[in-house]
Design goal:
two-stranded antiparallel sheet; mainly beta
Length: 48
Amino acid sequence: MPHPLLKKDACDANATTKIKHSDFAMGKHTPFVGDEVTLTITVEAVKE
């Protein structure tokens, strides 16, 4: 759909996932910060 300000074709996406420190051998500090982390990535692309 057209970007409201740029008047060019654009698209966006959101991605969310949860990972564990311990899955990547990074569990050393887990008692202090928790093992599970939520990652959220937002992307917007505008056609040139």
